[in-house]
Structures are given as structure tokens and as C-alpha cells.
Amino acid sequence: MPEKVSGFHINKFIAVQQYNTNLAIEQYKSSKKSTSFILQTICRKKSMEDTNKAGYDNIHKKTLLNFNY
After folding, report:
1. pTM over 0.85
2. Rounded to whole angstroms, how far apart are CA atoms 16 and 21?
3. Distances from the Cα of 1 to the Cα of 19, 26, 29, 48, angstroms
4. What local confidence, expressed as pLDDT, does residue 4 receive?
5. Does residue 28 contact residue 4 with C-beta atoms inside 8 Å?
6. What pLDDT sits at residue 13?
7. In what order do the strands lie in the sheet with 21-30?
């Protein structure tokens, strides 16, 4: 997770759930006033019964897309 990156802080966190996939949009703002959006595709839930948990099937299968504005 990019929370350890110096010069960046979390500005906004939006979580959207569509079907069995969680799409998490994390907005970071650097010291240079540029904004980065990291779209994090989370794998299908292991347990469909527990709707409060958004666990990863495998954390290494996460897809990170970086958009710099």
C-alpha cells in the first residue's frame, strides 16, 4: 500500500462494489499538488456469506493502475 510513500497522503477513499468484485479508488495528493488515482481491483471474495469482509483470494493478484493528473 502506498501509505508509506513520502510526500503522499490519502485525500479521499471511495469504495464501489459491483457484483462480486470490489473496485477501490484511492486518491493521493503529492506535495507538488498533482493528484494520483490508484484503482485497485480486488479479487473475488472467498466467502460470499460474509458480506462485511472484502478479503483477497490472493494479495499478489491485485491490479494497480496509476493515473497522474
Report:
1. no
2. 9
3. 24, 10, 15, 25
4. 52
5. no
6. 46
7. 8-18, 21-30, 35-42, 63-68
Cα-only R_g, the chain: 14
Contact 57, 43 (CB under 8 A): yes
Residue ranges covered by each domain of the chain? 2-48+57-68
Letter for the amino acid at 55? G
* Nearest alpha carbon to residue 62 among 45, 39, 42, 47: 42
C-alpha dihedral sign at 55, 28, 3, 63:
positive
Q: Show the cell assigned to 36.
A: 494520483
